[in-house]
Recover the amino acids of this structure.
């Protein structure tokens, strides 16, 4: 082992350590940014070391250098630009795209390596690289197309409702057989490119058929799962080219994605296979039932809401995805600030699946300067509801439905925010429409609940205006 | 099972366990930046792309290398940038710092 090689390997080790420390520092919002910076340092060191290694061993052609530099420059610029431009509501799409390119790059590493081995006219490749190559291409390619479809759904380019392809069972069976068959053939160490291409195509198609049938509200689980896939694909690429840096980084991401997937699935009380088969949003249009709910609804005006809120000691805001869809985060913060200035204790109760990816709602509220000390996770928030004078719900539905505590319905067993434990509940909502689960919300009929029928943005703005007027008088 | 594979597998399994341990302590508030940070970390595939691209000596090899570099470059540069953008927004007290608060922070 040359001196340079040893130094490079030591730098990889340092980089891996920095990644772990960086992730560790993310255990608190106060240190998280420093953690990300540690991780950047690790990454820059690893890339610089790789560059030094390439220069040292030589063998890169001039064209090779140009290709390296051009690819990196173009990709890097596109990445930076999209990271600069992206709106916080669109973060899930961007993360999906980064999952796609990460998985794609991992698959390409194995492909390039395979092509190289073939050019060396090797009759077979060793069992380890063979298995790792097959897995890398399989997982990487599924992640690539799957994430693109997920991003398309989140962006609204592809319908968010579950798309059921006719004969999908047969198609998936064929793809699985072809994929596993060609993977098994690759395990034998063949350098036959046709088999590789067959595996690649089957995996790419499988990524599409996997994500298309999944509904929009299940995206937090899907993104997390694809994130775990990308990590695993990168780790497999590490096995292919014998790079411990890739193996460690890939495994860390794999672990992170797996944890988030489980948390999200638990928060929706659904199993991962159940989500992958297709959403329960399929029969959602059965609105006929909702007519029965109109019975005992109390409505209130902006002035009434303003009085309730202004004279409360403690107000819990419950934002759901509808808030983000209405782009009403600023209006919410404005109202919260007004109440705080009056001495009202204000906090925000965030359900794990309140956004389109894990933790999304927290980012949206942080963007409008809500301090993170006011952002309460579900369990902490549920301790606060019994002492809250008013719970104000904006754009949340299924995650506050008390029906979840009873067996026998679509959301039974799903952990919910105990909004009904607050002394008074105000719900800002456009209509009595149902949530994603397609069932009525009995909270709206509760005698301490008042409905304020309005668009989230306008509703919050009019309540804030009423509070201002009230305070002025 | 070769020595190399055994080493690689050990590293893989232990890193997974470290990952589970470290990441399970991240609060739900930070899950989006966490995923974005993890996303950036798998940008290390850039190093892999560089190493394999160095072996490219055919047109097909160059094309594959180019896309690998482009994808990985986008992943790593964009990932870190957007993570930092998000984390910058998480503040304890975004409103004008009041003197009391500053003192309270220094105290412990």
């Amino acid at each position: 082992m040359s001196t340079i090689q040893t130094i490079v390997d030591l730098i990889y080790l340092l980089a891996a350590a920095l990644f772990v420390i960086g992730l560790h520092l993310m255990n608190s919002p106060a240190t998280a940014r420093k953690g990300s910076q540690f991780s950047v340092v690790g990454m820059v060191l690893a890339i610089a070391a790789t560059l030094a290694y390439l220069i040292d061993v030589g063998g890169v052609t001039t064209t090779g250098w140009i290709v390296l530099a051009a690819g990196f420059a173009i990709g890097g610029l596109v990445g930076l630009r999209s990271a600069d431009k992206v709106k916080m509501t669109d973060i899930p799409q961007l993360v999906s795209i980064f999952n796609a390119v990460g998985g794609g790059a991992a698959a390409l590493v194995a492909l390039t390596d395979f092509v190289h081995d073939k050019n060396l006219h090797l009759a077979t490749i060793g069992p380890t690289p063979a298995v790792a190559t097959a897995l890398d291409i399989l997982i990487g390619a599924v992640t690539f197309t799957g994430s693109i479809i997920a991003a398309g759904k989140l962006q609204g380019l592809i319908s968010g409702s579950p798309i059921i392809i006719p004969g999908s069972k047969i198609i998936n069976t064929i793809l699985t057989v072809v994929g596993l068959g060609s993977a098994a053939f690759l395990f034998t160490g063949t350098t036959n490119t046709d088999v590789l291409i067959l595996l690649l195509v089957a995996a790419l198609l499988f990524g599409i058929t996997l994500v298309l049938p999944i509904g929009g509200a299940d995206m937090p689980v899907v993104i997390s799962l694809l994130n775990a896939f990308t990590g695993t694909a990168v780790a497999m690429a590490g096995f292919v080219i014998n790079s411990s840096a890739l193996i460690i980084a890939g495994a860390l991401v794999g672990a992170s994605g797996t944890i988030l997937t489980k948390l999200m699935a638990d928060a929706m009380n659904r199993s991962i296979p159940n989500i992958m088969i297709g959403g329960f949003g399929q029969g959602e249009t059965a609105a006929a039932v909702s007519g029965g709910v109109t019975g005992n609804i109390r409505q209130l005006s902006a002035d009434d809401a303003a009085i309730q809120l202004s004279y409360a000691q403690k107000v819990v805001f419950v934002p759901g995805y509808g808030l983000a869809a209405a782009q009403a985060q600023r209006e919410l913060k404005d109202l919260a600030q007004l109440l705080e200035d009056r001495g009202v204790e204000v906090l925000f109760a965030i359900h794990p699946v309140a956004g389109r990816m894990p933790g999304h709602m927290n980012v949206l509220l942080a963007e409008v300067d809500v301090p993170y000390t006011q952002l309460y996770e579900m369990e902490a928030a549920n301790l606060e509801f019994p002492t809250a004078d008013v719970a104000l719900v904006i754009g949340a539905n299924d995650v506050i439905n008390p029906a979840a505590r009873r067996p026998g319905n679509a959301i039974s067993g799903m952990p919910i925010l105990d909004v009904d434990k607050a002394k008074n509940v105000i719900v800002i909502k456009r209509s009595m429409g149902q949530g994603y689960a397609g069932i009525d919300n009995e909270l709206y009929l509760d005698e301490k609940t008042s409905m304020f029928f309005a668009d989230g943005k306008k509703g919050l703005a009019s309540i804030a205006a009423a509070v201002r007027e009230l305070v002025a008088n | 099972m070769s020595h190399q594979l055994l080493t690689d597998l050990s590293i893989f399994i232990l890193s997974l366990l470290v990952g589970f341990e470290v990441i399970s302590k991240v609060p739900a508030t930070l899950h989006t930046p966490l995923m974005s940070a993890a996303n950036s970390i798998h940008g290390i595939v850039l190093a892999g792309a560089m190493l394999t691209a160095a072996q490219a000596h055919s047109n097909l090899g160059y094309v594959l290398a180019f896309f690998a570099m482009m994808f990985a470059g986008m992943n790593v540069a964009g990932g870190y940038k957007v993570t930092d953008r998000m984390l910058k927004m998480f503040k304890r007290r975004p409103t004008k710092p009041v003197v009391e608060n500053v003192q309270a922070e220094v105290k412990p």
